[in-house]
Structures are given as C-alpha cells and as structure tokens.
Task: inverse folding
C-alpha cells in the first residue's frame, strides 16, 4: 500500500513525558515536551460513555496514521490543535506497516481523563 501525501491532512504534535525539576519548589514534576510536528490522518473508530468518579465521561477511540518513524512509543501522546482548542490522544499501541514500511498507525484514545 502506497501512502499518498494528500491523505495526511492534519498537523499534529508528537509529545513525550519527561521529569523535570520545578525551579521554585525543586520538586520533581512530570511534563510533556514536543518531539516533532508531523502530518497525520485521523480516523475515529468509535466512542463510548462511561461513569468515572460518579461523572459521565465520553471516550473516543481513533487511529492516527503518520509517516514511518522508529522512535514513537505507546507512552507518548498526540496533540491536535484546531480553532485554538487542543485535543489530547493517548497512544495505546504503535502498529507498523509490515508491507511497505511507509507509515505507522497509532491506536489512540481521547476524552475522559486523557491528556
């Protein structure tokens, strides 16, 4: 399967979590840093509503296709900014293109407490 450039029509940020020292309190804090901005194709697969801490919460599952990279991990996240609003997608699996090696599919979830 050949990856056509026109199908990658959304700009997203790949981010990974790092531990840094807060300069005021000197405490160790987790924060997200951008690794790269890439073009992607986002396909929503399904959504569900669950109850979390007695509050209804919506969770959507999606697949995000990007050009092949060998550094993406399921501990990372994807951020899509549209109209000044960020949508955070937690990566649950990194699926390799076994035939051509042109792309990877990121199985992701958004909503709930993701982000």
Result:
């Amino acid at each position: 399967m050949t990856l056509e450039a026109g199908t990658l029509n959304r700009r997203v940020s790949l981010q990974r979590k790092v531990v840094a020292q807060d300069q005021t309190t000197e405490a160790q804090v987790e924060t997200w840093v951008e690794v790269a901005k890439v073009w992607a194709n986002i396909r929503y697969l399904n959504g569900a509503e669950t109850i979390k801490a007695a509050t209804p919460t919506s969770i959507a599952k999606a697949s995000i296709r990007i050009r092949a990279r060998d550094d993406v991990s399921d501990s990372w996240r994807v951020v899509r900014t549209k109209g000044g609003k960020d949508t955070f997608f937690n990566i649950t699996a990194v699926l390799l293109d076994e035939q051509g090696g042109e792309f990877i599919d990121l199985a992701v979830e958004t909503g709930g407490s993701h982000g």
